[in-house]
Amino acid sequence: MSIVAEPFKEDKGQFPEGKIILTDGRTLDCYPLAEQKPEKIETDSLQLDTTGQYLIIGRRKPTPVPKPSATVEELRQLFISNAFYLLAHKERILSDSRMFLCPVAIQNGIAYTGTSGFRKPTLGVYLEWWGQVKEAMRTDKNGCRSLVYQLAGSPLSGRNCCGAVREDGKTETVSLSSFNRHWGPFMHLNQRYTEAKQLYHAYTLQEVLDILHQEDDNSKADCSVMIDVLYMKHEIELLNQRIEAIKEECDRWHDKYEDALTRYNAEEMRQVYADCEAFETNVTKEIDALKAQKKDLKENLKRGRIDNVSYQRQLTPLKKRISDLFFQISRYQCEKVHEVFPKEKDINFNIIKKFVSNSSGCNGMSAL
Prior knowledge:
By secondary structure, this protein is of the alpha+beta class.
């Protein structure tokens, strides 16, 4: 049973010893755990759910999902209520592995595979994901901004019921379009640091907040400007992605149009190419003769048979004539194309040359 595409398989996160490499390429030093290194590193690969909570076979009733403990719920609320504050300090958090690897008490999951691949997400995973995925940082039509903090849905149907927190701290249930484009990257990021989570020291969320508050001089720093900047950068990145997608789509349609146009006018194009090739062949003979004269003239200068003044006086008309002949070739090509295709503005000699070269395997005419 295939749930995800190949790009979403577990990322082993093969980093240099004592370091992690973030998705933007920066490298962070890590701090080994005070306790003994675990004998075995547990994986977090995608696999079918065996708890009965996310995969139900037959007519069995789903196994109830156990309620989180009071401590876990408190940590969950601590993350949600400070989500925008943490986002505003993104660069600071992404500069310290202990902050980056800080565990977040949010349990994500999808149908059929449950929580596999989503176990023990970190603060850094959320910050990278918010910045990389389209609807993770949301702005509605009224300008209200929110951050998606919990993923839940079906990877097959795409139906989902996710959690988001607004700037004012209120939470809401949202349905994400293209659900696979959201849970897949989150899982990929989370699996990227699976080994690092088990090997290196990480701050608790409260410790991270205490450090950030202390660096903010224990004042309620106005983070609105940084939030504005991050959201604007996110929107710009999304627009750039849309522009690139539109360019690629435009190029695809242009190629299809050019292909249809050339096939429809194939015989006429081959004839135009043959005529232009014959004309260029004849003109090239004169060009080659003039180039030979230039070579002889230079040789006479080297041997002292003529002085520099005489050399320049004889060279100038030769160069002008050669330039004029090249221009005659280009002009003939343009006039010939216009003569045969007077109403086709999208056909030029370069398109004809490309078509004939591709269809007949010829080497084409010499570069001008």
